[in-house]
Amino acid sequence: xxxxxxxxxxxxxxxxxxxxxxxxxxxxxxxxxxxxxxxxxxxxxxxxxxxxxxxxxxxxxxxxxxxxxxxxxxxxxxxxxxxxxxxxxxxxxxxxxxxxxxxxxxxxxxxxxxxxxxxxxxxxxxxxxxxxxxxxxxxxxxxxxxxxxxxxxxxxxxxx
Length: 160
Fold this sequence. Notes:
- By secondary structure, the chain is of the alpha+beta class.
- It folds into two domains: 64 residues; 88 residues, no CATH class.
- It is 37% helix and 26% strand.
- Helix 1 packs antiparallel against helix 3.
- The chain starts with 8 loop residues before the first helix and ends in a 6-residue tail after the last helix.
- The mean pLDDT is 88.
């Protein structure tokens, strides 16, 4: 007789929910990143590019960690209004001193840059449009975890 509840039901459900949550969170970054490829291009200027560190709490745990931000601030003008932003890309960077420094060196103060901004929400902008590999890795990892939970529930341990 087929049992609906098995010893693996709870772990499988946890994997499925965790995988689904990870994928949805990843999609929250992939979708706007994908849309940014069609945003409007304007010329902007780097105002600052000074890496800075801050203490951040550790997700899913206790304690804190030192994280680094590239400190890139740029400004651009749309329809006569000046906007400032810090989002370099949707791709992210390694939150280490080296990672932040690498990004900051790429965008030196007072240099002119191409800024891509949302045609409706002009305050939303990036210097590097489009998604990166890391955006898709998060979605893919979530789907793999979800599939593992599904497989675990489909083939309970000890089943013949």
